[in-house]
Each structure stands twice: as C-alpha cells, then as structure tokens.
Design a protein that fits this description.
Oligomer: single chain
Order of helices and strands: EHEEEHEHEHE
Structural class: alpha+beta
Strand content: 15-25%
Shape: globular
Number of strands: 7
Length: 151
C-alpha cells in the first residue's frame, strides 16, 4: 500500500473562532412565535448596517444562487425584564451596534408605526422584549451578563 492511500488525509482545518459575537437577548416570557419573530426582526438590521457580518452568497451544485447569510453564528439568550434592561444599558454605555424590539411593536403593523412607537418612549422606559448586539466577543459577553442561553 502506498503512502498516498485515501486513508492518509490532510489534518482537518482548525475551527474558526470569531473575535466578534452576534447575540440576541429575548425576554423569557414571550410566546414561541414571538421569540422567532423578534429574533428575525432584531438581526435584520445588522446585515444592512454592518456589511462585515455578512458572508458570501451561496450556490448549490446546480448553480442556483442563494442570498448570503451571516458569516458567524447568532447566539440567542433569554432573561427576565430586569436582565434585558441591564443589558440594554450596558450596550448603550459601550456604544455597541444594537437593535431593540419593544412590546409596543406587537400591536403595530408596519415599519413607520414601529419606529414611531419606539420614538414615543424615553430610553429608560422602553418595554424591551428583545435586544440584539454585535461587537467584540468580550464586550458582548459583558453586555449579556446574567442572561442564559436560550433552551
């Protein structure tokens, strides 16, 4: 048997470890459909605003093209209302890119009304049900202190 046997393969590439983190923090008392909806809305702004978080477009073996997606995982956490409020304050103090979803947005039906609903409430009084944040891994970890991974 030669040394070029198919059993002699090159070592597997080292796992990719990102120095940044994309995270979503959801309020634990949301219904399942709300969690999914809030998560989708919260991460939608990241790709539009921060092109570095988006990878290359996909293509299958037949040449059919697909849209690009984030280049790294989106980690989803949950916490109570106080955890969300504290995380929001920490994200603001670190000036990290962030998006918010408030309880009021469940009763609006379009982008214009969503923005008006958030604008109508002072920062300290926002009834947050979701927060997304992006930044250096250690900074995002500090923002999420007290939150737990979503089950």
């Amino acid at each position: 048997m030669s040394s070029t046997s198919p059993l002699n393969t090159a070592p597997a590439p080292a796992p990719v470890r990102f120095d940044t983190k994309i995270a979503v923090l959801l309020r634990a008392d949301l219904e399942p459909w709300q969690r999914l909806n809030v998560t989708a809305f919260l991460v939608s702004g990241l790709g539009a605003t921060l092109p570095e978080v988006v990878g290359e477009p996909y293509e299958d073996a037949d040449g059919i093209a697909y849209l690009p997606m984030f280049r790294q995982p989106v980690l989803v956490f949950e916490g109570d209302k106080e955890t969300l409020k504290a995380a929001h304050e920490r994200a603001l103090s670190r000036a990290l890119p962030r998006a918010v979803f408030t309880m009021d947005l469940f009763s609006t039906g379009n982008d214009r009304d969503n923005r008006a609903a958030v604008r109508a409430v002072p920062t300290a009084e926002l009834d947050l049900v979701g927060l997304s944040v992006y930044g250096p891994r250690n900074a995002v970890d500090k923002v999420l202190k007290g939150a737990r991974m979503h089950p």
